[in-house]
Specification:
By secondary structure, the protein is α+β, with helices and mostly antiparallel strands. The protein has 11 helices and 6 strands. The protein folds into 3 domains: 86 residues, no CATH class; 85 residues; 150 residues, Reverse transcriptase/Diguanylate cyclase domain (Alpha-Beta Plaits). The strands form 2 sheets. The protein has a 4-stranded antiparallel beta sheet with strand order 2-3-1-6, sandwiched between helices. A hairpin with a 6-residue loop joins strand 4 and strand 5. Helix 2 runs antiparallel to helix 3 and helix 4 packs antiparallel against helix 5.
């Protein structure tokens, strides 16, 4: 026991770092698993857990450990609730469509049963006509039966068209609702931008089409300082304002999204030179001062970001392209000094 204690004392920092690394890895695994289990809501869980990972440092206090644990439990509970609601909604949509189809089939069956009786009566009258000997009477009966048969067939055809039209309308309605749900599943809830899943789909589409395109990857500078100084609500305000300004300068054909935490990605249908021009527009028009806090205690914080621009090279995978853009972005990131918010905080 003494040897174990000596070992623990001698390797305290190393063991602590290993424990923290395991904790971060566990959070990352939970986020990844949640995203795979239910992508529409799992991406949010993954991003939230990534934010919690960033707060785990070597000088973590017991109070912060408890706060992180509570945060993880809260995010998992929220993910479970949202995932349950999502799958319940999808199940209800399928059930509704099946009920519509069953109702239509039942109506068709009732129609056929009703007309079956009419055809039976018609056949019986034809049998009686066969027993007649008066030719004018036979002719009159045949004409009357022919008119009735034509009316019956026309009515069946009309009812069939109405049943099919009703079914098509209901199927279209359900299809529209499912498409809307799928579109919503590709939206990041805080900023309203495309989420990571939607950005990956946009990249995969262009790769399949072998279209020339570029990526802009942005990582906000000093965002942790904003959270630590003003609180996470202020951080959310900055993210929403920055996202709105960022989206404004791009075309509707470009995909502008929040990748994770304070990282943003733009997928542009542009070559490198044009993408570089857009990056300069971002620096000129999007970087700047943003307001945080309530109406009585508003403060200005300066927001800028490291930017990486990379054009897709034929044969390059999505992971390789993202890796290049990420490297270029972090090359800028390493040369940037986080702003001091002390003056802002004292206002």
């Amino acid at each position: 026991m003494i040897s174990i204690k000596k070992y623990l004392d001698a390797n305290r920092d190393e063991l602590l770092q290993s424990a923290l690394d395991c904790y971060r890895a566990a959070l990352a695994a939970m986020g990844s698993t949640g995203a795979q289990a239910c992508p529409p809501v799992g991406i949010t869980l993954q991003q939230s857990l990534a934010n919690l990972q960033q707060r785990i440092s070597a000088d973590l206090t017991p109070v912060q450990v408890l706060e992180t644990e509570a945060g993880v439990e809260k995010e998992l509970d929220e993910w479970a609730r949202l995932a349950t609601d999502y799958y319940r909604q999808r199940t209800d949509e399928i059930k509704e469509l099946l009920l519509v189809m069953a109702s239509t089939a039942e109506a068709v069956g009732e129609r056929d049963s009703r007309h079956e009786t009419q055809f039976h009566d018609f056949s019986a009258r034809l049998s009686k006509i066969a027993d007649l000997h008066d030719l004018p009477q036979i002719r009159t009966s045949l004409l009357a039966s022919a008119v009735e048969l034509k009316s019956c067939v026309q009515k069946m055809a009309q009812e069939g068209k109405e049943a099919v039209a009703q079914l098509r309308a209901e199927v279209k309605k359900c299809h529209t609702r499912i498409e809307e749900a799928e579109r919503t599943a590709l939206v990041e809830p805080l900023t309203g931008l495309t989420n990571r899943r939607g950005l990956e789909a946009a990249i995969e589409f262009r790769l399949a089409q072998k279209r020339r395109f570029s990526l802009l990857m942005l990582d906000l500078n000093g965002f942790k300082n904003i959270n630590d100084t003003y609180g996470h609500m202020a951080g959310d305000q900055v993210l929403k304002q920055f996202a709105a300004e960022l989206k404004e300068i791009f075309r509707v054909t470009d995909s502008v999204g929040r990748w994770a935490g304070d990282e943003f990605v733009v997928v542009l249908d542009s070559v490198q030179a044009e993408a570089n021009d857009y990056a300069e527009r971002v620096k000129s028009w999007v970087f700047g001062d943003y307001s945080v806090g309530g109406s009585e205690q508003q403060r200005k914080v300066h927001v800028d970001a490291a930017v990486g621009v990379a054009e897709w090279r034929p044969g390059e995978t999505m992971a390789e392209l993202l890796g290049r853009a990420d490297q270029l972005m972090y090359r800028q990131k390493r040369s940037h000094k986080a702003p001091d918010l002390a003056d802002e905080f004292s206002r």
